Amino acid sequence: MRVLITGATGFVGGRLTERLLEAGDVIVGLSTSGTWPRSLSHLNSHARVEAFNIASAGPAACTELIKRKQPEVIYHLAAQSNPQASVDFPIETWNVNLGGTLNLLEGVRLSELRPRVVLIGSGVSYGSPPTEFIPVDENCPLRPNNPYGASKAAADILAIQHVLAYNADIVVARPFNHAGPRQSEKYVLGGLARQVAEVERGLKECVIVGNLDVVRDFTDVRDIVEGYYLLAKLGAAGEIYNIGRGVGTRIQDALDFLISQANRPIQVHVDPARMRAVDSPYLVANPAKFRRTTGWSPKYTIEQTLKDMLDEQRRAIMQ
């Protein structure tokens, strides 16, 4: 298959590229940098990446790109994907997450081609779900409580409009939290793994944390990209699919596990400044629709994911 991946050089994009190469796909990645980062340098000889800013390019440039590349499948990952950063930079977040999606989908429409588009939304769009919708299925009302969740919800609605109005072949994936090796320290589990590794090495005195009582549905990124691959093949146009393990993990429990793997005692300090002004205390997916459609099931336990993340951070510190 000829595949186009927006946001290819990010945490998820790199993993997806690896998975699609295993499947024998011919891949062109798009990113603002136009180069694979050092952590993905092994992809240099296997997948091209081009400089392309989907938020600023406009529909005409997107149309020209799609006509030139003739993709059979487009995975749209490009986004400002950090909820906390979206609070600090809401305009930029909306420009990328909704504006970039509009540019891409208009480019598809104007190209007069009909590639399968896997649009990546987010479980964060559900915000703090009402009790009767926990665990969260696709019928739960969208009640986003930050610009990231709101902009991703708007992009999902835009995608459905393109399906209904223009017969576009778009399937919407709505993944819940994911983690795994190579994840940025800006995200909670990536940050905790890094800090535990640093305390082990004597580089800092303690692990500094915020709210440890929130519960999230963490899925290994390697399982997430397998889900995207399956949706490209088996998902129905105009449908939305929640992706997650369907099991909640308390942040405190994740930290306790990381500490249990450490080779020395780890002290923890709670920093009130790290508490979010608005947060969802409990967000867990009901992935039944997704599993029925694709037959997907996760291969990685949360414990294996955390062990892999900690081991990676240990290696990074040694370099």
Structure write-up:
This protein has 319 residues and is α/β, with parallel strands linked by helices. The protein folds into 2 domains: 203 residues, NAD(P)-binding Rossmann-like Domain (Rossmann fold, 3-Layer(aba) Sandwich); 87 residues, Alpha-Beta Complex (UDP-galactose 4-epimerase, domain 1). Strands 3-2-1-4-5-6-11 form a 7-stranded parallel beta sheet, sandwiched between helices. Helix 1 packs across helix 7, helix 2 runs parallel beside helix 4 and helix 4 packs parallel to helix 5. The longest helix has 22 residues. The two termini are 38 Å apart.
Key features of this structure:
319 residues, alpha/beta, Rossmann fold, UDP-galactose 4-epimerase, domain 1, 2 domains, seven-stranded parallel beta sheet, 10 helices, 43% helix, 16% strand, globular
Describe what is shown at a glance.
With 319 residues, this protein is α/β, with parallel strands linked by helices. It is 43% helix and 16% strand. Helix 4 (90-111) runs parallel beside helix 5, helix 6 packs parallel to helix 8 and helix 6 (188-200) crosses helix 10.
Secondary structural class: alpha/beta
Shape: globular
Strand content: 15-25%
Proportion of helical residues: 40-55%
Report, as a whole number of angstroms, the end-to-end distance. 38 Å
Number of helices: 10
CATH class category of the largest domain = Alpha Beta
Per the CATH scheme, the topology name of the largest domain is: Rossmann fold
Radius of gyration, CA atoms, in whole angstroms: 19 Å
Tell me the name of the CATH homologous superfamily of the largest domain.
NAD(P)-binding Rossmann-like Domain
